[in-house]
Protein 1
Amino acid sequence: MCLAIPTRLIEIRPGAQALVELGGIRKQISIALVPEVVVGDYVIVHVGHAIGRIDPEEAERTLRMFGELAAQEAQ
């Protein structure tokens, strides 16, 4: 099974690269598969590649669920 995480795109860089941020962590990823993205979009990231755009409301809902799961694991 694969896990893809929604993250917010904060900067587009040369060479089909971009910077995303999730929970204060920033990571450079490839946007070669989704060249239409713009700063502020949420993208689904899998192994360093944006594989699709996601609706902001759906992204926030998914991130909330991941947060709830993490909180349960910590107990």
Note: The mean pLDDT is 92.
Protein 2
Amino acid sequence: MSLVTEFNDYRAKMNEKILAGDNKVIKRIFNLDTNTYAEGALSEKTKEMMGLACSMVLRCDDCVKYHLGKCFELGVTDAEVQEIFSVATLIGGTIVVPHLRRAVEYWEALQQEQ
């Protein structure tokens, strides 16, 4: 199973289980997250690129993978991804480097599945 498929399948399965608990607060948080990245004054693409940079700085590999997937879907280029990576690594410091490695691996996996 590919890295991308494994991540997406697990994420979908666990989100389904979480939402099946019918917890109002959790449902509202998920909804807020969805609505935050909708087209607005900033484009969806811009918001996803911001989400990627923030996720790298916060060192959340699952969030990095999710935002990389959305960036890929929205046509973010290799050059744009490299600049996002550079900004995130500058802001986050060298502790971000291990997450940068995994992000590069996942970006390559997305491209290979195309």
Note: The mean pLDDT is 97.
Protein 3
Amino acid sequence: MRKPSDESVVQSGASLSQQLSQRLRRQPIRRLKMSMPEAGVLVALTDHPQDPQVVLTRRASQLSSHAGEVAFPGGKRDPEDADLLATALRESHEEIDLAPDRVEVVGPLGQVVSKHGFLVSPFLGVISDQQPLTPNLDELESLFKVPLSFLLDRHHFQMETLSFEGRSIRMPRYDYQGYVIWGLSAFILVEMLNQGFDADLPLELRPESRR
């Protein structure tokens, strides 16, 4: 499914959500047995027939955590959330005005641990390419979309060294129109590209996955 420069990212014959669902079902989904606060995030792809886009946000500068960072819509689980998918959908509704019934949920991605000590569960979903989205300016500075063709192009892919729990790890990074996609969000993004689109991008295991 990896995209040559003159071909569509999406294969013909099945919808994007069907293709992704089939691929994810064939791969083990990482689950971490850790006792810590939980969060859910939504990795939303638009259903453009040739070049879907990934929805991302930049957090508002006045927030107490992750201020100014690029992130997926999502946040901390509330007691009333039925599960972490409900968390991801509720937070996406609050942050970018994306109603839960406008998301075709594909399934879960591998769990990861954030630098602030949250066990993060990402969920992959598909939305209409025509779906209007509006950032909640109390929480977000902006929202933006990145074409899959850009992300699958190795010329745009970078690796950088970060410190995590006293260890040095190499993490992916993208620079897109003034936005820096790095850290946890970049890891989730690249893992999704590898699992869903055969991107074959280099990705090191995070420390929590080695325990």
Note: The chain has four helices and eleven strands.
